Write a sequence for this structure.
């Protein structure tokens, strides 16, 4: 595990790594730095872990029981504390969610938006799994 | 199969000409049948080349192969042409090359077959988008029986492996069109959790519009299909464990056991292209309206044909083409009249229909839409600009009007076109009905008598059934009865949340009686969706109340609230407070010294609580194990201050020291705390024990209050402080020690079983039918005959108790979760800070981040 954790971030490779199925499929372009988080096996389905990102940022990474993996910001925008990774996951009418463990506001794991307060949103991060290691995509500074 | 490949191709005694058919799909077969039935003089000899090993089968019904796995059930009737010497089918034989000059076809077996007429019926092949990893092991398409066999084998292996790893097996379908949804259903039937990724913002983008797509998505999601619309598939990477990691274009990722591509089809026109036949811009062999290609001896039918430049992905137009070519070969004049692309189908039990100009493409077309979110139906009609002629429409959820509506397409609508889709009958607002309208026809019950029953206090369906017998036969009237109830302002729902319709008490009964021990199992059988922060901890609590498994064991770990997950109380800055148990408020000097040292070493803020114990604030996640190790070493245990469970048993000093005391209140408090520690309940539970009537322990402000008398103990229940204080009420007097404990056992277990989520004992008693008298009867007289049961359940709890913290410290797996960052276990959370300049240490919160990082 130690070796994985210290694995250096890798940069996004040239376009071949992500082919376009149909025009316009890809999210915001721009190269990303892929920060190693942890082996997939370390994730408990339904729960999150916090991941330290470059420049002191932090993300909350979740594996859901159905196999989906999401990453959003870890700082609860209401409480100003790094606790989102410790929230409970679930869904609201099919939208995958996490609830802050502090005051229980519910956020979409897909878009980061607070469901009852569309003005507020957590940042979202791209996820990639390679050889069993989960990495998060962080835009280059 | 009556045909053989040995028989040489070519004219026989009667037939003078040979037609070679390439492809034995649905349309190829229809062509042969049409030709043979019309060619009464037997002028044509037919040779069919079939690439697939099976003779023509029902591809439209391909999905019904799942489950029965019986190929013969799908065979199209007459596909062996038994007894017809003029038809020869060569199975497993591909047409490799066409020589139009020489008029011969070369097969994959190397034979060369001469033709007078050639019919291309090669159909389509599934389009696989060139996503990196699309050819990984575990990627499939959905077109042939062989495809389904492959999917089946993979799915069965995945399910076995997933079960051994304690997870769900799942599959991803790329493409949310008609075929994609069929494939998703097949995966569901195979026992996988299906995901569907659709690039368009809605499912079935070709058939339905946005509104219909939204209703469809809701209906399909309710069936357990995970729908991801507006997302493409960016890459697929095989993992070392054989699973596939799929990256979606919205930045999320999925770990899946298999992938099925259903991203559209392309005409199988390769052989025709190589032979120099004209093909359409988007593929398909170009023909005129007689299905004749650019070579007068070559014809194209079915999905491979681009008739006047247009390909048809449905079987009915293909059949028409087959008839046209059969007619032409016999000198007829038939032409292809164009096709109606209306569709009506049942996908995963959901009706979907679209007809005519469904997308309102006609200039000036008007749309009239009716949506019923609760029923999950969507209906739209498209009419001409003068609102008189029906042009088309879409129906989702209920397509019963399809046949009628389709009949009206292109005609003038009688009256208001909106009425065509207005919901009929009982749904027509029950309140508009007169009192003598019969609501329940089975039992001849009128609206008047149902409303009368409601007015007299029947406040749920069961009560109405009881007093009017409405809804007791076929049940068809129940939705209307329910609506009358709702209209009258009766609150019906006891539902825990959107995922469980049951109340907590009902779920408790279900768990107790079915023995289901997992949240996923309970959800699958009794709930919907994937759960949320309301039902997960509730079910976790029920599971904990009914067994002694550690709350962080297996799947249960994922259900616990953050507090229970880290076995500590989360505070406003994300740090935790630590409260060791001090039964009855007793603590040894050694323990007190350790608490002080721990507080000093970890810089914790110390405060004595109202429950006679000590709270240590400001511990970071990764410090919790080290703190608890030291506390456990001096014999302290978790105080469960974080849980919905027994908190403290507060006591006065009692007869051992106090001159007024009549009983040993401390001794009793310590015994009670030891007995009930760790018991999970709907809400927190507090006890108090006072040594005489002076009540120094404030026991009557507790859920369970015990007050000494000179003959024994008085037992008070259902009191609390907090927002709505309540005095505990006397349940029984002058009890001896043993009876006291038995009564408390019964009382607590009865509460744990029947209370709602987060309902403390006082409101529970208020809501209890029969109130205190009923409770007395249940606890003291065993009026329900469940006392033994309740005591036995408590006995199991006492027996199985273990200190949650000690168990975690002994388990490296559980211990490894106590880190701030999974990728930097040594790092402390840099955002946690304290201010120690004032009279006491306080947390400093971050400024609230407002920028949204778009990644
Ligand atoms: C799961 C599923 C559900 C469907 N549901 C519906 C529906 O509800 N309604 C509807 O109208 N349509 C539906 N369709 C579409 C319908 O099945 C097709 O429109 C129809 O099968 C087309 O018939 P075809 O004979 O043109 O092509 P196919 O049925 O594809 O047959 C072509 C055959 O030719 C063979 N072939 C190709 N090249 C060669 C060669 N060079 N040499 C020899 N053989 C060759 C192929 O292997 C294939 O067996 C569905 C399709 C699928 C897959
Ligand atoms: S309740 Fe009675 S026994 Fe207990 S401390 Fe007060 S006076 Fe003494
Ligand atoms: S209509 Fe009421 S039970 Fe049949």
């Amino acid at each position: 595990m130690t070796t994985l954790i210290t694995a250096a971030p890798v940069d996004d490779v040239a376009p071949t790594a992500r082919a376009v199925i149909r025009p316009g499929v890809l999210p915001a372009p721009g190269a990303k730095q892929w920060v190693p988080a942890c082996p997939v096996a370390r994730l408990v389905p339904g729960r999150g872990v916090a991941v330290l990102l470059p420049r002191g940022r932090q993300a909350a990474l979740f594996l859901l029981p159905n196999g989906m993996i999401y990453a959003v910001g870890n700082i609860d925008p209401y409480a100003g504390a790094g606790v989102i990774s410790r929230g409970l996951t679930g869904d609201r009418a099919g939208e995958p969610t996490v609830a802050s463990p502090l005051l229980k506001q519910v956020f979409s794991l897909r878009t980061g938006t607070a469901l009852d307060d569309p003005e507020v949103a957590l940042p979202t991060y791209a996820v990639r799994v390679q050889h069993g290691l989960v990495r998060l995509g962080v835009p280059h500074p | 199969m009556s045909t053989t490949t040995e028989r040489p191709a070519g004219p026989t005694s009667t037939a003078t000409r040979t037609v070679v058919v390439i492809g034995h799909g649905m349309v190829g077969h229809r062509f042969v049948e049409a030709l043979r039935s019309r060619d009464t003089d037997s002028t044509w000899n037919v040779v069919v080349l079939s690439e697939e090993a099976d003779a023509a089968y029902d591809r439209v019904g391909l999905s019904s192969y799942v489950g029965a796995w019986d190929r013969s059930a799908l065979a199209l009737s007459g596909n062996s042409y038994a007894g017809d010497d003029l038809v020869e089918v060569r199975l497993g034989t591909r047409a490799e090359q066409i020589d139009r000059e020489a008029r011969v076809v070369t097969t994959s077996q190397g034979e060369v077959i001469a033709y007078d007429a050639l019919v291309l019926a090669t159909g389509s092949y599934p389009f696989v988008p060139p996503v990196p990893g699309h050819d990984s092991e575990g990627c499939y398409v959905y077109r042939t029986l062989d495809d389904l066999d492959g999917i089946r084998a993979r799915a069965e292996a995945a399910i076995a492996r997933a079960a051994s790893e304690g997870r769900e097996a799942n599959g991803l379908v790329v493409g949310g069109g008609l075929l994609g949804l069929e494939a998703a259903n097949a995966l569901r039937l195979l026992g996988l959790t299906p995901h569907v990724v659709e690039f368009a913002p809605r499912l079935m983008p070709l058939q339905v519009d946005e509104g219909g797509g939204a209703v469809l998505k809701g209906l399909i999601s309710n069936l357990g299909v995970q729908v991801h619309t507006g997302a493409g598939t960016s890459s697929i990477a095989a993992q070392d464990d054989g699973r596939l990691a799929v990256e979606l274009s919205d930045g999320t990722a999925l770990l899946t056991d298999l992938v099925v591509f259903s991203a559209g089809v392309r005409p199988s026109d390769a052989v025709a292209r190589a032979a120099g036949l004209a093909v359409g811009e988007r593929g398909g062999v170009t023909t005129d309206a007689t299905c004749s290609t650019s070579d007068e001896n070559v014809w194209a039918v079915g999905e491979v044909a681009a008739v006047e430049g247009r390909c048809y992905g449905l079987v009915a137009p293909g059949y028409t083409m087959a008839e046209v070519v059969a007619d032409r070969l016999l000198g007829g004049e038939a032409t292809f009249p164009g096709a109606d692309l209306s569709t009506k189908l049942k996908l995963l039990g959901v009706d979907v229909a679209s007809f005519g100009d469904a997308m309102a493409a006609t200039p000036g077309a008007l749309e009239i839409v009716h949506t019923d979110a609760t029923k999950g139906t969507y209906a739209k009609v498209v009419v001409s600009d003068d609102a008189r002629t029906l042009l088309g429409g879409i129906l989702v959820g209920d397509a019963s009007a399809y046949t009628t509506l389709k009949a009206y397409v292109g005609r003038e609508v009688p009256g208001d076109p909106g009425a065509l889709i207005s919901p009929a009958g009982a749904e027509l607002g029950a309140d508009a009905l007169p009192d003598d309208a019969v609501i329940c026809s089975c039992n001849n019950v009128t609206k008047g008598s149902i409303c009368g029953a409601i007015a007299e206090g029947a406040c749920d369906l069961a009560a109405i059934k009881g007093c009017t017998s409405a809804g007791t036969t076929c049940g068809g009237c129940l939705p209307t009865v329910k609506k009358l109830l709702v209209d009258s302002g009766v609150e019906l729902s006891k539902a825990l949340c959107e995922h469980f319709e049951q109340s907590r008490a009902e779920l408790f009964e279900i768990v107790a009686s079915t023995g289901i021990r997992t949240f996923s199992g309970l959800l699958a059988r009794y709930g919907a969706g994937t759960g949320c922060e309301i039902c997960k901890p509730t079910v976790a609590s029920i599971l904990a109340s009914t067994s002694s498994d550690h709350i962080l064991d297996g799947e249960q770990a994922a259900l616990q609230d953050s507090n229970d997950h880290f076995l500590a109380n989360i505070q406003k800055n994300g740090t935790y407070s630590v409260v060791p148990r001090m039964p009855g408020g007793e603590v040894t000097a050694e323990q007190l010294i350790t608490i002080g040292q721990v507080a000093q070493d970890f810089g914790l803020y110390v405060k004595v609580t109202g429950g006679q114990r000590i709270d240590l604030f400001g511990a970071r996640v990764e410090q919790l194990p080290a703190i608890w190790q030291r506390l456990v070493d001096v014999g302290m245990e978790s105080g469960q201050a974080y849980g919905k469970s027994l908190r403290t048993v507060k006591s006065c000093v009692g007869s051992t020291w106090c001159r007024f005391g009549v009983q040993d209140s401390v001794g009793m408090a310590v015994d009670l705390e030891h007995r009930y520690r760790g018991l999970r309940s709907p809400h927190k539970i507090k006890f108090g024990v006072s040594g005489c009537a002076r009540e120094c322990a404030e026991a009557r402000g507790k859920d369970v209050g015990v007050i000494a008398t000179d003959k024994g103990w008085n037992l008070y229940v259902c009191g609390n402080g907090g927002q709505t204080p309540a005095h505990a009420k006397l349940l029984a007097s002058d009890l001896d020690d043993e009876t006291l404990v038995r009564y408390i056992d019964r009382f607590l277990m009865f509460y744990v079983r029947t209370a709602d989520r987060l309902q403390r004992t006082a409101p529970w008693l208020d809501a209890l039918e029969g109130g205190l008298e009923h409770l007395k009867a249940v606890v003291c007289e065993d009026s329900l005959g469940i006392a033994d049961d309740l005591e036995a359940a408590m006995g199991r709890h006492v027996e199985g108790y273990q200190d949650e913290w000690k168990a975690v410290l002994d388990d490296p797996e559980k211990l490894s979760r106590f880190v701030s960052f999974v990728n930097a276990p040594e790092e402390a959370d840099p955002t946690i800070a304290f201010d120690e300049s004032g009279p006491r240490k306080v947390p400093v919160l971050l400024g609230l981040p407002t920028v949204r990082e778009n990644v």
